[in-house]
Fold this sequence. Notes:
globular; single chain; SH3 type barrels; eight-stranded antiparallel beta sheet
Amino acid sequence: MEQGEIYLVKFPFSSMVDYKIRPALVVSNNFFNKKFDAWFCPVTTSKMEECVPLESGFAGGELDRESFAKTNVITTIENVLLLKKIGKLKKEKVLEIVKRIEANF
């Protein structure tokens, strides 16, 4: 698993009681991902201030609707919750998203 890849995952609700199947973006770096469960941010079709548009950002694969990385939500997801790989973003787009996440700290 690599930073910038998008997977269809069982993304947990904040209550951690249930989940929604949705696309999610790997935002943790590759070194981290080899040792631990990866960090993901959800991908949404809702345009919000905290979201980064993904259009023109794909290096491979695609989503069927206009989509956004929701940078105000980060969750650790175990590999068993990954359903399938959907695509991968260009490095420049990933850096834009990570910088937006860093600004939240």
